[in-house]
Amino acid sequence: MRVMSRFTSASRLIDWLLMALLAAVAFLLGCYEMGDSDIWWHLRGGQWILEHGRVPDLDPFTFGSADKQWIDIHWSYEVILALAHRLGGVGALVLLGATVGTGAFLAGLTARQKEWPAVAAVLSWLPALVLFSFRLDPRPEIFSALYIGCFLAVLWRVERRPILIWLLPILQVLWVNTQGLFVFGPVLLAMYVSARVTQLAWRRLRGGSVWTADERRCLWHLGGACVAVAAACFVSPYFVAAARFPFDLFPKVAEAGNVYKQYIDELMSPRDYVGQTTAIVAGTNWFFLAFYFLQLLVPLSFFYPALWRAWLASSLSGKASVERGATDANAVAAWFAGLAVVLGLLLVSTLTRSERWAPGLIKAAGDRVAWIFLLAGVAAALAWLRRSRAAALVAIVTGGAMTAWMEWLQQELLVDGRRSLDGSASASPAVLLLAMGAAALLVLYWEGNLFRVLLAVAFAFLGLKALQNWSRFGLVAGVIVAWNFGEWSYQLTADWKPGRVSKVARGCLRAGLAAVLTLWLAALTTDRYYIHTGEPRHFAFREQPLEFAHDAALFAGQPGLPEHALVYGLGQTGVYVYHNSPRCKPFLDGRLEMPDQKTFEKYVAIEDWLRQKDPRWEKAVSQLGNPLLLLEHTNNYAAEALLLAHPRWRCVYFDALASIFIPRDSETLACNAPTVDFVDRHFTEPVSRPVPDVRGAAGREQKALFNLTASLPRSPELFWRDRAPLLWVALDRARVALGEDPSRPDVWVLLGNCYWNLNPDLMAKPLTPAEPWIPERGVYWAQATYCLRQALELHPDNAPAWRYLFQAYGARGMADAQLAAGEQWIRTDPKATAGQRAQIGELRRASQAPLANKASNPEVGLAQLAQLLRTHHPEAAGRALQKMELQTQDGWNWSFAELAAGLCMHLGKPADARRIWQHALNCPSEAQRHCRVASTYWIELNFEAAIHEFQEAQSSNPQLAEAYWGLAMIHTELGRAAAAFEACRQGLRLELNERQHGDLIALEQVLRPYGSIHQQLSK
Fold it and tell me: What 3-state DSSP class applies to 27?
């Protein structure tokens, strides 16, 4: 007895440890960088309430909804938010969200019988916690999650302690003053009461006793609480308007196809999310996988216990005997093993949503898991038919229901629709409803709980309607699965006397779970967990860096600038409100309750017109009073390009995150906001720190500048005026970014694209490897290739690098190199379209790379190399060149070296080209050799070495134009205006080819103001 008591005490201690570890995981899952933009207008709302000592009645923050009634249903949350921010800044807000989220989880976790196995609860909550953490930002909805958890915890206990039901009106009063989802309170209570009434009616139909004293007392409490909860919905400063609020807001967030649902990501359905990102990408996102898995696990948690109860009834002569198991050890082991197999199948089906987790045969097996359930149901029905028709019926119906549900879910979420084994379309809604309805009736008959079924249906439906419901579905799914499997496992093992092997197995399972939770905690605190989730999160108590345009918003609010603003994207409107309202107001912000549909449609229409360069935007903005335009770079490059070139608008601010434009009228011209001059920015502060001055901002600004350049017209006439200055500043930002971290492949990819676009005429045919090397025609293409290859050395599976390398090779007719890059591109890019994959396939079929023969004679090698290059096989030529270089002890003749080194330059291998040129024989002049070597250093971004070589070329032959062109371009790139201007002036005195002359003439015009100033200063 003493040994048994010690074993029981140790088991309880371990169970408490598991629960504590699970709670710690729940807390740390909420401790990530704050990235939700709505926080800012909520925070400003709380500050406004504290400043004025009352809740708002009219909108004080936007001019698009000026003087419209504001039902600030979130007012108490906003006050809490403002007080927390006052105490501890953004870190306190993150801590608030994590704490409230943990409270919601603990409330749901406590809704269980203490006799139920703790292991079952922990296992049930593991996938639910992953999904629950999808939205643990300190938003008002996190309090709704807390109240949902509290409601479920109370309703779980009501049957035993009816008096607890009176906690619900108190919770409802708090809820109605916190968030618009307070309507869930009455809905949850209504579902519970409906389930109780249905249970009593069913008992009455079967001739059982209904109106016992306990039942009457419970129903009196329930009835009174229902009235009190309904009345609590009116206990708000806004009275009836507050109670009506959810019904006014519901069409905006629920109606398919409305402008709100199409525009706001969190209102997007999972189907639309997969359609945007592709099923392969969605299948690598842990939150999507957890959502998919729980959509399968929740119905299974009803079906599997019902199947067991039907099977057990046949052994115990009647369904009434199922309440306590009386199952032998072999049966217990068999049912647990069966559950493990079933859960494994669900896991395989979930992970095979992405090819990343499931190559080859595993992927094919995962696509057929649904039909395994049907076959298993048929097999179980045949095995049990003689013993129990009831168990056979449950087996085949639940198996069919799971198959129909999985097939429909794949079709609904994967957009393109999976096909079943016989090639027919997957389950139709009618078949699904019939199968699930029949299964639900059988579940309810075999000791199922109607309240749980209603909860599961309601929240699974909400999860399928919008991404913002995933966290709530995760919370409720965790509660339901823990209820169903906790109760079932208790009944299964209630009369079971475990042996030594079973005790050891249970101990190992507990130890394994403790290890998993401990590793999860370690992964969270070290940021290893978020590397694989598919979401850009980091464990930290701060706001997400480079997410909110604080500096731009503060600039926009300074005196002298327009006090009305049109802000894009929508997420930055809250930042503008936080810093500037109510003195300065945006057209609208992220409050869905404020703008009516026409106002929101106007906001979206102007954004679309700006992006599409539709002239209607001018009239629409003019009708708003020509407000200041604050544009977040992301998704607004075309709009920025339009405004940058517009004669009636000017850019007065540009940083890593956003730009600001104001109209060119008498009022704004008088303000202290000069127009941004990118040429001046490059030549006066080429390596200045970015704004905001945080790690990664320079790379973000580089991206913004390049995308802005790509959105401008590509006319050669406008290159030096519009596109070149932006590219120069982008190169400045790239140098700063690489100085911070030279191992960033994204910076190298963008740098390659910047050099690619430094070609003044992108429509002109570029230099190919089959032509003699001409620096002014080939150097920027070679630089682009070199930078892309640098990105691939850092990250061999960088899909953008392979894609741009594919395009760069294709532009120069390098067919076999293009094919090799294309093969890598489609291998690494899950977003590659079917058309792009077909393009690679056609290129593969057309490719016939000849074999390169060995050649010891350089002259023979030249003919062979030229033939390979003329037939667009530079990769094969490169391999042949390597063989020839190994066989040749001395340098090659200059004519051959020019072709061979040029090939190396095109392939992005400047070091190989430099070695060939340095050892080449019969060079026409040492000045030309210095220029070629300088080009190789230039491509490698070794600017000082390149300048030295060009200067050596000048000393050797002062009449060599190539040296002056190269010095002018390099000094310009480095922001050295005086040196570049002097190189231009000297070069223009020489005999130049057409490209050199055009470049130096245009560059001299750009440099003249800066070159003259520097010359005067030097004198």
Answer: helix
Phi, psi (5° rounding) for residue 65?
-125, 30
- Extents of the domains making up the chain: 498-547, 553-734, 746-922
pLDDT of residue 850: 46
Residue 421 confidence (pLDDT): 33
For residue 210, the model assigns a pLDDT of 59
Look at the block and give the residue holding tokens 């570890």. 21
| pLDDT at residue 859 in the model | 45
Instruction: Give the Cα separation of 966 and 934 in Å (integer).
Output: 8
Tokens standing for residue 18? 């598991």
Measure the CA dihedral 19/22/27/28, to 10°: 140
Instruction: Report pTM.
Output: 0.90
Give the pLDDT of residue 670: 61
Ordered DSSP codes for 391-454: HHHHHHHHHHHHHHHHHHHHHHHSSS--B-TTS-B---HHHHHHHHHHHHHHHHHTT--HHHHH
Helix (H, G, I), strand (E, B) or coil at 484: helix
Pairing of strands 564-568, 585-586: parallel
492/447 Cα distance (integer angstroms): 14
Closest CA to 727 of 687, 682, 683: 682
Nearest to 255 by CA among 269, 244, 275, 242: 269
Segments in the chain below pLDDT 50: 1-4, 318-326, 416-426, 849-860, 1014, 1016-1019
pLDDT in tens, 640-677: 999 999 999 999 999 999 999 999 875 666 677 899 99
pLDDT of residue 933: 95
Note whether 769 and 874 are within 8 A (CB): yes
Strand, coil or helix: 154: helix
pLDDT of residue 437: 81
Q: Could you tell me if 368 and 348 are in contact, meaning their C-beta atoms sit under 8 angstroms apart? A: no
d(CA 547, CA 1005): 38
3-state class of 286 per DSSP?
Answer: helix
CA dihedral 231, 236, 241, 243 (to 10 degrees): -40
Amino acid at site 643: L
- Report pLDDT for 10: 67
Tokens of 56: 């708002």
For the sheet containing 585-586, what is the strand order?
585-586, 564-568, 628-632, 658-663, 649-654
Burial class of residue 114 in the structure, from the number of CB atoms within 10 Å of its CB (0-12 exposed, 13-18 middle, 19+ buried): exposed
Instruction: Measure the CA–CA gap between 799 and 811, rounded to whole angstroms.
Output: 18
Contact between 781 and 906 (Cβ < 8 Å) = yes
Contact 225, 166 (CB under 8 A): yes
The upper half-sphere exposure of residue 974, i.e. CA atoms within 13 Å in the direction of its Cβ, equals 18
SS3 content of the chain, % helix, strand, coil (to 5): 70, 5, 25
Q: For residue 967, which of 956, 957, 955, 982 has the smallest C-alpha distance? A: 982
* Cα–Cα distance, 529 to 877 (Å, whole number): 46
Distance of CA 310 to CAs 314, 317, 903, Å?
7, 11, 76
> If phi over 0 gives left and psi between -120 and 50 gives alpha, with beta otherwise, what is residue 907?
alpha
pLDDT for 1012:
58
Contacts (Cβ under 8 Å, ≥6 apart) of 266: 135, 466, 467, 468
Query: pLDDT at position 895, please?
Result: 86
Burial class (CB in 10 A: 0-12, 13-18, 19+), 32: buried
What's the chain's average pLDDT? Answer: 86
Q: Report the run of H or E that residue 148 belongs to, with start and end.
A: helix 140-158
Largest CA distance in the chain: 113
So what's the architecture of 746-922 in CATH?
Alpha Horseshoe (1.25)
CA distances from 843 to 418, 611, 804, 826, 847 (A): 29, 34, 16, 13, 6
